[in-house]
UniProtKB/TrEMBL annotation:
Record family assignment: Belongs to the CarA family.
One MF term in the entry's GO annotations: ATP binding
Matches recorded under Gene3D superfamilies: 3.40.50.880, Carbamoyl-phosphate synthase small subunit, N-terminal domain (3.50.30.20)
Descriptive protein name: Carbamoyl phosphate synthase small chain
The entry's keywords: Amino-acid biosynthesis, Arginine biosynthesis, ATP-binding, Glutamine amidotransferase, Ligase, Nucleotide-binding, Pyrimidine biosynthesis
Purpose of the protein: Small subunit of the glutamine-dependent carbamoyl phosphate synthetase (CPSase). CPSase catalyzes the formation of carbamoyl phosphate from the ammonia moiety of glutamine, carbonate, and phosphate donated by ATP, constituting the first step of 2 biosynthetic pathways, one leading to arginine and/or urea and the other to pyrimidine nucleotides. The small subunit (glutamine amidotransferase) binds and cleaves glutamine to supply the large subunit with the substrate ammonia.
InterPro entries xrefs: Anth_synth/Amidotransfase, CarbamoylP_synth_ssu, CarbamoylP_synth_ssu_N, CarbP_synth_ssu_N_sf, Class_I_gatase-like, CPSase_GATase1, GATASE
Top-level taxonomic group: Bacteria
Pfam families: CPSase_sm_chain (PF00988), GATase (PF00117)
SMART domains, per the entry: CPSase_sm_chain (SM01097)
Residue span, Carbamoyl-phosphate synthase small subunit N-terminal domain: 15-154
């Protein structure tokens, strides 16, 4: 079905669509992308650019993303900037992971030297139901005041009945993000390798929803990256004989990720250098004895300030998370693997943004140092991981160099 209808004056107007929020509010607009019905958790992102990277980030699985930028689609869509991989593919793909997309204004034209098609045509091709023409300022204020909530977008035949009470019932009846275990939905089903031009170190990377740029950033530093499925075991990791273990970003509630926590604990017990980001930060925190909680509306965007406690340095970071670690009293505690401490906090709200073992053998951050599509303030964390692995290899003769 076309998403455009012939108007009385001879022009074309988009077909109607509605966004229904769990609190009962109805937001009317126009079809954007595919027509139909989609359900998910409504969240907002503050990035003024990088919508392609956002839409293809596996961490947004089962979420309806509201863009705060007033106009979306200006730079179109290309085949290079996708941040997802499909079943071990060695290059990034443009698979869209969001459940739905909410925007205010759709750009009338896509203008960029790398653009290959429009954003709306790509969403329609992939069956992603969206809505445009709504007041995103009102929606974002509601989500900030009342928290991220269940939502649904309806258009075409899904809207033909006009019974908004029935639509609200569908929205409220869906699974909550709290308690959702989503790693299996987004993880690769088979291992693959991203190789550098010259291999200096080797890493086992657990894919809980890894973004494509992360292995590229590691490979750029001479690290051979073996990406493993979410259900990989310690034996799978040891078979690679890695110099370090990396835990990726991903969607869902970290309180459900018991298998990943157990694997992380085993890795720490083996004294293998460890680095985690985003979901991986929450997993490391749990392995070190901390609890997690669901935030009111989370951090999503490419402009979140984070303070490093040891130096006072502030980095502008890319983030996408709705859960966080509970801060321990005093910022330091005794973990099963030695003294641990909070290393970073958000400058806006003091949310824990990084933890580590005091001996330096394991560390993690809540943000995205691979930063596709920016900023790049935190990319030196990959250098820190490289130095950690190199130091251990030199001291013990373990890892790739021992082969």
């Amino acid at each position: 079905m076309s998403s455009l209808t012939q108007a009385t004056g001879g022009g074309l107007i988009p077909d109607p669509a509605v966004l229904v929020l769990e609190d009962g509010s109805i937001h009317r607009g126009f079809t954007y992308g595919a027509q139909g019905e989609t359900l998910g958790e409504a969240v907002f992102t503050t990035g003024m650019s990088g919508y392609q990277e956002t839409l293809t980030d596996p961490s947004y699985c089962r979420q309806i993303v509201v863009a705060t930028a007033p106009q979306i689609g200006n730079t179109g869509w290309n085949s290079e900037d996708g941040e997802s991989r499909v079943d071990g593919a060695t290059d990034s793909s443009g698979k869209v992971w969001v459940s739905g997309f909410v925007i205010r204004d759709s750009s009338r034209r896509a203008s960029n030297w790398r653009s290959e098609r429009t954003l709306e045509s790509e969403l329609a091709e992939q069956g992603i139901v969206g809505i445009s023409g709504v007041d995103t300022r009102t929606i974002v204020r509601r989500l900030r005041d009342r928290g991220s909530m269940k939502a649904g977008i309806f258009s075409g035949e899904a809207l033909s009945g006009g019974d908004t009470d029935a639509l609200l019932e569908k929205v409220r009846g869906q699974e909550s993000m709290a308690g959702a275990n989503l790693s299996a939905e987004v993880s690769t089903t088979k291992s693959y390798v991203v190789s550098p031009e010259e291999t200096k170190l080797r890493v086992a990377a657990l894919d809980l929803g890894i973004k494509s740029n992360t292995p590229r950033m590691l490979a750029k530093r001479g690290i051979e990256v073996h990406v493993l499925p979410h259900d990989a075991t310690l034996d799978d990791i040891k078979a690679i004989n890695p110099d370090g273990v990396f835990l990726s970003n991903g969607p869902g509630d970290p309180a459900t990720a018991d298998a990943a926590v157990q694997l992380t604990s085993q890795v720490l017990g083996e004294k293998i250098p460890f680095f985690g980001i985003c979901f991986g930060n929450q997993i490391l925190g749990r392995a070190l004895g901390l609890d997690t909680y669901k935030m009111q509306f989370g951090h999503r965007g490419i402009n979140v300030p984070v303070k490093e406690l040891s130096t006072g340095k502030v980095a502008i970071t890319s983030q996408n998370h709705g859960f966080a670690l509970k801060s321990p009293e005093g910022g330091e505690w005794d973990s099963p693997f030695g003294k641990a401490h909070v290393t970073h906090v958000c400058a806006n709200d003091d949310v824990v943004e990084g933890v580590a073992l005091v001996d330096g053998s394991a560390f993690s951050v809540q943000y995205h140092p691979e930063a596709a599509a920016g900023p790049h303030d935190a990319s030196d964390l990959f250098d820190k991981f490289f130095d950690l692995m190199s130091g251990r290899k030199a001291a013990t003769g373990t890892g790739k160099a021992a082969q």
